[in-house]
Amino acid sequence: MPSTASLIPRLKLDYPQFSFKQAEHFLWSPSEQTIYYTTEVESYGFLLHELSHGLLRHTDYSHDIELITMERDAWDKALELAETYKLAIDDDLIQSTLDTYRDWLHARSTCPQCKAIGLQVKKRAYACPACRHTWRVNEARICALRRSSTS
Ligand SMILES: [Zn+2]
Ligand SMILES: [Zn+2]
């Protein structure tokens, strides 16, 4: 398996519209048009995933559910890219990463008072249809939720 570092020169050539910068976490920055990556071995799946966010022009979203759609779309695109570069991305990695987002959405949308599932009424606010309680949530960023371990 190639390392992330060995893939970078190729991606820089193929996608000159983006910058690639080494960092502590994987992240796509729409404002900087930059893909931040780490050089852990076999993390090229995440690298292709972040690149996919860029290629799909993912920027902002108004509902949390859209974030999950963006994540899924970015993995679909990453699988396509992997084929181009003759790489394979483990499906377990994709599923466990998506599960993180589903868990996050579930925790965020559960009414803290009665545990019913709330409706998102604003970018950072939910309302409970059962007990009318409203609550605020933190801002979420694309790919900021990933588990640190990929096991
Ligand atoms: Zn409630
Ligand atoms: Zn992502």
Short descriptors:
single chain, about 150 residues, alpha+beta, 3-stranded mixed β-sheet, 3-stranded antiparallel β-sheet, 4 helices, 6 strands, about 40% helix, disordered C terminus, binds zinc ion
Write up this protein.
- By secondary structure, this protein is an alpha+beta fold.
- It is 42% helix and 14% strand.
- A hairpin with a 4-residue loop joins strand 2 and strand 3.
- It is elongated.
- Bound molecules: zinc ion (ZN) (2 copies).
Task: Set out the fold topology.
Layout: H1 4-14, E1 19-22, E2 27-29, E3 34-37, H2 44-55, H3 64-84, H4 91-109, E4 119-122, E5 125-127, E6 134-136
Helix pairs in contact: 2-3, 3-4
The protein binds zinc ion (ZN) (2 copies).
One zinc ion binds at residues 49, 53, 71, 74, 142-143.
Please summarize what this structure is:
The protein is α+β, with helices and mostly antiparallel strands. It is built from 4 helices and 6 strands, in the order H-E-E-E-H-H-H-E-E-E. Helix 3 packs antiparallel against helix 4 (91-109).
